[in-house]
């Protein structure tokens, strides 16, 4: 029984494989028959008669064309015409339109040093700076000269003699101490908010010389001397002045020396150099020359 069953299964399997093979072959042929027929020009031209003027191979008869042998120039697709180079046009120079630079355009004007203005001493200053005493005291000298010498001619020459008392950077003069020292030396607080040395130590008579703050604002606030600090003082006298000029300068020089000793400073001349014996002699010569010129003008 088992052998017979095995034989039956083998036969069924073979039939099944043969059926599958036949079905696949049939499917392939069916697909080939559905493929569209491609056009081949050789199939249509085999039986077609040759066209007129052409042989079987499609070659036509020879024709003679006039102008043969001459090459026809090919026309370029794009034609460009060279533009002539532009020549620079020479224009005549208009001398009237040419401008000459002025001094304001070419020259640099250096700023001038600030000048101490006694009319604006009440304005606050950001930082103390050295006052331009030469220019400032010239202005003060003119004012005092007009007050004390009204009977003299306005064209009479004048001169200012200046001495400085300067302290080192680490030292300062306190306002109250300065006021006490100036009182002992006979100075009186007065016009221009500065101190003056009069002919009389009590403050009477004309002004012999004056004392101002070397640093801006250049003045003193007599009501707030306890808040004042400065490193320098300026003593100056004007020529002509009351009394004997040489004697007045000697008093001013002695006052400057005493202030320098009191506060630990140095006495400087008008050029802010250390005052020497030779510089003092130079001041004396200036005073004598001024007196001589004054006598000549009379």
From TrEMBL:
Gene3D superfamilies (UniProt xref): ZipA, C-terminal FtsZ-binding domain
Cellular compartments annotated: Cell inner membrane
Signal sequence bounds: none
Keyword Kinase part of the UniProt annotation: no
Residue span(s) of domain ZipA C-terminal FtsZ-binding: 157-287
Annotated segments matching region Disordered: 34-99
Keyword Transmembrane helix: yes
Membrane topology of this protein: Single-pass type I membrane protein
GO biological process: cell division
Record field: compositional bias (Basic and acidic residues): 84-97
UniProt xrefs under InterPro entries: Cell_div_ZipA, ZipA_FtsZ-bd_C, ZipA_FtsZ-bd_C_sf
Transmembrane regions listed in the UniProt entry: 7-26
Keyword annotations: Cell cycle, Cell division, Cell inner membrane, Cell membrane, Membrane, Transmembrane, Transmembrane helix
Domain of life: Bacteria
NCBIfam families found in the cross-reference section: septum_zipA
Family note: Belongs to the ZipA family.
Biological role stated in the UniProt entry: Essential cell division protein that stabilizes the FtsZ protofilaments by cross-linking them and that serves as a cytoplasmic membrane anchor for the Z ring. Also required for the recruitment to the septal ring of downstream cell division proteins.
Subunit structure: Interacts with FtsZ via their C-terminal domains.
This protein's name: Cell division protein ZipA
């Amino acid at each position: 029984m088992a052998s017979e069953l095995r034989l039956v299964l083998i036969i069924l399997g073979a039939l099944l494989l043969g059926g599958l093979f036949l079905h696949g072959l049939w499917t392939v042929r069916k697909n080939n028959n559905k493929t569209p027929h491609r056009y081949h020009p050789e199939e249509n031209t085999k039986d077609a008669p040759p066209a007129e003027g052409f042989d079987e191979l499609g070659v036509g008869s020879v024709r003679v064309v006039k102008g043969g042998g001459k090459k026809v120039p090919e026309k370029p697709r794009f034609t460009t015409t060279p533009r002539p180079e532009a020549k620079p046009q020479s224009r005549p120079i208009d001398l009237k339109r040419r401008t000459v630079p002025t001094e304001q355009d070419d020259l640099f004007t250096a700023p001038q040093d600030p000048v101490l203005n006694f009319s604006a001493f009440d304005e606050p200053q950001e930082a103390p700076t050295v006052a331009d005493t030469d220019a400032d005291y010239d202005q003060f000298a003119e004012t005092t000269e007009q007050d004390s010498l009204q009977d003299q001619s306005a064209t009479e020459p004048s001169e200012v003699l200046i001495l400085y008392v300067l302290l080192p950077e680490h030292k300062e003069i306190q306002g109250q101490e300065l006021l006490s020292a100036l009182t002992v030396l006979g100075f009186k607080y007065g016009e221009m908010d500065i101190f003056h040395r009069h002919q009389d130590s009590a403050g009477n008579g004309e002004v012999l010389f004056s004392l101002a703050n070397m640093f801006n604002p250049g003045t003193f606030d007599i009501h707030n001397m306890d808040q004042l600090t400065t490193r320098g003082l300026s003593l100056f006298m004007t020529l002509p002045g009351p009394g004997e000029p040489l004697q007045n300068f000697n008093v001013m020089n002695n006052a400057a020396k005493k202030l320098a000793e009191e506060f630990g400073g140095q006495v400087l001349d008008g050029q802010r150099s250390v005052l020497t014996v030779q510089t003092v002699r130079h001041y004396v010569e200036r005073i004598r020359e001024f007196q001589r010129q004054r006598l000549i003008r009379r």
